[in-house]
Specification:
The complex is a heterodimer of chains A (306) and B (198).
Chain A (H helix, E strand, L loop, with lengths): L1 E9 L3 H10 L3 E8 L2 E9 L3 H10 L3 E4 L6 E6 L11 H10 L3 E6 L13 H8 L3 E5 L4 H11 L7 E4 L12 E3 L12 H27 L6 H11 L12 E3 L3 E4 L3 H9 L10 H4 E5 L6 E5 L9
Parallel strand pairs in A: 5-6, 5-7, 7-8, 8-9
Antiparallel strand pairs in A: 1-3, 1-4, 2-3, 10-11, 11-13, 12-13
Helix pairs in contact in A: 3-6
Chain B lengths: L8 E4 L8 H17 L6 E9 L4 E8 L6 E2 H4 E6 L2 E6 L5 H12 L4 E5 L2 E4 L4 H5 L2 E3 L1 H16 L6 E6 L3 E7 L5 H16 L2
Parallel strand pairs in B: 1-2
Antiparallel strand pairs in B: 2-3, 3-11, 4-9, 5-6, 6-8, 7-8, 10-11
Classes of the chains: A alpha/beta (306), B alpha+beta (198).
Chain lengths: 306, 198
Amino acid sequence: MFAPMIYQGGVYQHNKILELVEDLGGYLIQKNEMQTEVSLNLFVPKEDIGLLEAKANALKGELKYAPLAGTDILLVIPSLAFHHMPHPSCDIAEYLRREGATTTLIGLSRGVGKRIAQIKESEKKLIEEYDIAIFVMGIFDACIIEKEEKLLEDINIPTLVTGGPERLNLRYANSYVGGIGRINHRLKKEGEIKKLDDVLTSVIRLVEERRENIAKDPLIIEPPKIMYEIENQVSDIKDVVSPSPISIQIDGLRVKLPYNEYNNVINEIRFDDEGYKLGEIAAIKPSLFRQSILIKVRPISDITTI
Amino acid sequence: MAEFTEKFDIELCNVPPMFLDEERSSLDKVIRDVISSLNLSNTVRKMKVFMDPKEAYFIIVANLASPASPILLKDVSVTSLKGGKIALSVFNEEYMPSILKFLWDRYGRENIEQPERLDVVINASDLENILKFVVEDPSSIIFNKLIDAFDRIKPEGFRVTRYFYDKKSIYLIASEDTIKDEWLETAERILNEIKGSE
């Protein structure tokens, strides 16, 4: 079982951390170099965290548990207008990224208003590609209740709604965080940071519930292992300029290569120690998001059908 | 209420259907943020906001302070006559585009020299005639700024709007549906209230 961790420290000798993680059989998910600092999102075997901690201490770096590393979280806002951007939606996204999540922000094409709010079928499919969706809504409780019924109906992933009223009973959302309505300034006051913490806690709870559900019928292969093999076997992934060419999800991963050209290559990826190829153990689909490839790994109970 | 002090008052109307307290404080913050970020806090003296989230319409009424007087060329520059030419030195670069456009239109580009960024030499001697040129008239841009501010304050989906503006007060009604006559009457009533309270 892997534990998601973040290492933050100097660039100098951070390779030693990477070498140790590789020796332990762990994986590097994402690496951000910021001048002299480096931040590494890692998946490490749980029983070996002590070794890594010792190494991090020796390098004067910091190792912390990152409950959201390896999750792909989507923020949905009614539109990309200044009523919702950049505050509070970007503030929430940034706060989740600090805990290791990969975040994406989308604005709905017709999500604004109360009676006129709509969501397209393609938007629902796009939302369902992610692990968790956060809907950032406005101030008025009557509007949030009506909109929530329209926008969140039949979305099959865990959803969280943020809005102005402190408490709301919503029909479809798995969780609700109040006190964040429309805000036109950066969330930096004490009470506002506390609200961001509330969002974070709710997201972590949803992620852990999802991970627990998956653990009941585990995936045939852990997504970080697929990521490692893609990096080794598909050399073109090194030319992708996106900050995270491969983003890990709880039950799969997103590869930012065009589906039409790389579908076959991804399908044929083989794993040394196992006898099968990727196409047999995972559903490989074109993603609605910028032509990328979406890989959803099958659970072990599917193995009899292979 | 917002923690910083502003010169204007905001009243979120308290007639039924009322705002909930949380809605009231959130909207109050949004309004104060928008008004101060658009530099309108000296313009708006009093503001009343009315909204019915059930029927979905939004009314915002503001009483305006009298706008600052127009800025003339003589207020923003030093002028002198030298050898039959006018020398003009402007204090603030912000006003240069409007001043240069005026001078080019009046004397033609060939008669205007600009030796330095903020200095102009004009090949003419009728100094008195240009001193009263209006460089910027704050009252003409206030309307656009107010409409911009109201657009940011009102709920985004309320795209059907109707407004009234008479330089001393302004109101805007916004909704998802066609504007009803009774909403107009409510807006007029609030406008009269706000005028009467002066």
